[in-house]
Amino acid sequence: MIEPTIIGALAPAAAPYFGWDLVRDGQELFRYGFMQHAFEAGTIVAVSAGVIGYFVVLRGLSFAAHGLSHIGFAGATGAVLLGAQPIVGLLAFTAAAGAVMGALGQRLRGRDVVVGIVMMWSLGLGLLFTALYKGSASLAIGILFGEIFGIDSQQVVVTWVAGVLTLLAVLVAYRPLLFATLDEEVAEAKGVPVRGLSVAFMVILAVAVSEAVQVVGVLLIFALIVAPAAIAERFTTRPIRGILLSAALAVLFTWAGLTVAYYAPYPVGFFITTIAFWSYVLARLLSYLAARRGAARPGAWREEQVRHSP
Amino acid sequence: MSPAIVADGLAAAYGGRLIWQNASFTVNAGEFVAVLGPNGAGKSTLFRLLLGLLPPAAGTLHVLGESPRRGNPAIGYVPQRRNIDADVNIRGRDFVHLGVDGNQWGVGIGPAVADADGRVDKAVAAVDALAYADRPIGRISGGEQQRLLLAQALAGQPQMLLLDEPLASLDLRNQIVIAELVASLAQANGFTVLLIAHDINPLLPIVDRVLYVAHGGVAIGKPNEVITTEQLSRLYDAPVEVLHDSHGHMFVVGLEAESAHHDD
């Protein structure tokens, strides 16, 4: 396994520079295998995280997603302790926790304390496993903050498989999942298996979270799962467009983060989260301004009057 | 006329607790029935039985000639709810769309999409909601939301509508408007309608019969037979008086305070 690098992509001796010759910049960016792998895996991860994130935001499961990734930390460090790939333990723990959360269904809402306490213990377990492993702290740091530049070609293949499977699952379940998300009671009466979908969705989310951990790590999962979807959800009222915009934003954040991190001697997780954060701030500002403009229209004013009249 | 609902010795239990029993009644096709009764009497439970979401604890129930089954496309259902969260940034039209094909797997592709869109347009037009169907459903008024949820039920091309407190959280003017809308849609399409309500007033001009769920039992009758001082006082277990105005309208006094609050 390549030693995770959290303070920069390259040794200073080979420091690349960014110029105005974009063709040369592109060639430079993809000169090394690790960058090709990072872009390939990062793109797949971003697409599936963006797509599934839209449903996470709509279902009000942001904190559950956050909790899932933390629970995965115990799995990932435990797997390493047993001599397995971190992703194996990550998947096992997040999928199991996801299935339990999904079975709770609606009852999970407002259970932030329960999720938080399970999450807390998982981080504690992960800390123990890291200590037992006696490896360097970089193992834990790689899992906590991601090690996208350490992805090898075998991991790229695993990412492809997981990404395609999660997207296929969303494609197959799309309409009933949207129905159960927006209008659970009617969906149930109309024969949609809302309970089964709830479990299935959380397991799919667990897979997407496990993949995303490779890029941004356990702690920064919001950057790919929640931030793009939360922005997309503000800008379109149509679910399909929301999903596509969310995926596009997640890809954009990842590409921009990878590109900047290649040239600048700072961690990629910092750049991805920074871009995600400021994009969200900008999105809120824009939708606030749009709402103010909308409220200033005479038609909107009349409507308010009608609504408030007895 | 063939019966839409036949219940014989029906009993409902929820969580091991018997809610009501010995209910034997028939609702004819095309009838408009208001379902009334105190809180917790089991009005919504009756709907769950009709929808096949809850099995009868005893007795038999037939809905449109068959045993209740979940996902029966002939039933349009609008559950009781508070107003939709203002944060839900999804078009009203997309909510209506769920009523057409929300229970089918996959994403809609090919000619089915145009067909579904056509049904959505028709349903939205039927409830006169074209003006705001493209706005986020969380940002429209309670009456407008209720129209679109009704359109969602219509989009499934039902024969029967089960509406659980569609008038709750609406002001009096909108209660009357929505009640009349449901009545005219029912008449035009021959729907059988069961509508759970707290306040009888806006429904008095349009209901055929009233189904009472109270005191662990169920009773059905014409409004002028059962909306009487004696019957309603017994039903609500509280002093209630029924007054008549010069036009023959019935006014239920004593429930006004309750209907103005709608805390449940």
Can you describe this structure?
The complex is a heterodimer of chains A (310) and B (264). Chain A has 310 residues and is mostly helical. Chain A has a single domain, classed as ABC transporter involved in vitamin B12 uptake, BtuC. In chain A, helix 3 packs across helix 9, helix 6 packs across helix 9 and helix 12 crosses helix 13. The longest helix of chain A is centred in the middle third of the chain and has 30 residues. Chain A starts with 21 loop residues before the first helix and ends with a helix. Chain B folds into two domains: 176 residues, Rossmann fold; 69 residues, no CATH class. Chain B is built from eight helices and eleven strands. In chain B, strands 5-6-7-3-8-9 form a six-stranded mixed β-sheet, with helices on both faces. In chain B, helix 5 links the parallel strand 6 and strand 7. The chains are: A mainly alpha (310), B alpha/beta (264). The interface between A and B is medium-sized, with 28 and 36 residues.
